[in-house]
Amino acid sequence: MYKHMVDVRAKQGYTTALMLFAGHSPTFLYPDQWNASYLRNWYLVDSYISYANQKGLIPVLGTGFHKALDKVPLSQLKLLWRYLIARYSAYAVGWLIVGEYNFQNDSRRIAKVDELGEYIKKLDPYKRALSVHPWLYTKEKHQLWDRPWYDFIMIQGGHGYPPPIKYYLSIFNRSPAKPFLETEARYEGIFNAGPDDVRHAAYRAIQAGSFGYTYGSHGLWLPLLYPGEKIPSLEAWGKALPWWQALKRPGAEQMGHLRRFYEALPWWNMAPRPKQVIDNIGDDDKRRVLLKGDDDRWWAIYFPRYLDANHVVRLQRMPQGVYTGKWFDPRRGVFTSLPKAFSPTSGGYLTLPARPAGSDWLLVLEKVR
C-alpha cells in the first residue's frame, strides 16, 4: 500500500510527503526507559523513508496533531526528537514539530513547541527545513512566525473558500521576510470540493506568493479508509473514499500539471505583481486576475473560472518590446501558443487576449526583443 502511494505521487510529480509519528496518545517512554514495543517497528520507518527518497520524495516528519503532545513531558519530547534526528537527519527529510500547534491558542502548548523548535534546530547537524503546522488562519495568532528556528511560515487556509488575496500578499510583503507555504486548503472531497476548487486554491496561493501548495484528499489523511468502514470523524467532513480511490482523484493529477507549469518558467525570479493588473472587478476577490512576473522578460497570469470568459483585462507599466504568449490549460497540462506576436502601447498598456474557453486558464507572456 505504502509503495503504491509513493509510486503514484512520484509519477505525478510531487516533491514531499507528510509522515506523522506518535499519534494522538504517544507512549514511547516509561519513567526510566524506552517502551520496547514502540521501538520495535522503527526498521519499517527506515524502509519507508528510504523508499520515498529513492522515488524523489522528501518525507516531512512530525510527531502528532494539536492536543497529541499536551500530556507528554517536554523532557520526553526532546528525547524523542533527539532519537529522530540521530536516526534520520542523514536522509533527505524535513521536520514538522506538530500539526495545529496553536489549536485554541493554548499558551502552554505554544511555549512547549517553541522550546522544541530551538532544541531541534540546535541539535540537527544538517539544519533541515523546520516548521510547525498552524490552526485555521482566521483563528491562529501567528505566535512563532519570527522565531529564529522557524524556517518558513505555514498557513492553513481551511476547507471553505480560500483566504483573501490580500492576506497572502501581506505575508509575502512582511518584514522580516520569510517564505510561506499554503499547507491545508480545499482538500479534495472535503465538503464536496472538486478539482476545480483545488486548482483555484492552489494557483491563487502561489500567484499571491506561496512557494508551493500542499494537496490533500479526503480518505487519505488519517485514518485511512477501507471498504465498508464509516468513521464518524471523517464523515463529518464529507463522504470519504477508500484510500486507493482517494489517491487518484483528478485534482491530484492536476497538481502535477501545476508543477510543470511553473518549472517551465524562471519561477525563482518571479514575484506577485498585483498593481500591474487592470481587471475592473472592484473588490470581487473571487474574480481577481493574478499576475506573477520578473518585471523584465516573463509574466504568468492566472484567470479564475469565476471571471467571464470575454472579460477584458489589461496590464500596465509593461516594458516596450515584442511579446509572444501561450495559454496553459491547468486541467490537461497543455500549452498552446498564440498565433501572433504583439506589443504594448506607448504608454505601457497591454490588452490581454480572451481565454480560449470558460473556466480557469493561465497565460504566459515572454518579451522576446
From TrEMBL:
Pfam families in the cross-refs: Apiosidase, Collagen_bind_2
Top-level lineage group: Bacteria
Domain Apiosidase-like catalytic intervals: 6-269
Listed InterPro entries: Apiosidase-like_cat_dom (IPR025277), Collagen-bd_put (IPR024749), GH (IPR017853)
Start and end residues of each Putative collagen-binding domain: 276-366
PANTHER family: DUF4038 DOMAIN-CONTAINING PROTEIN, LMO1036 PROTEIN
Descriptive protein name: DUF4038 domain-containing protein
Originating organism: Methylomarinovum tepidoasis
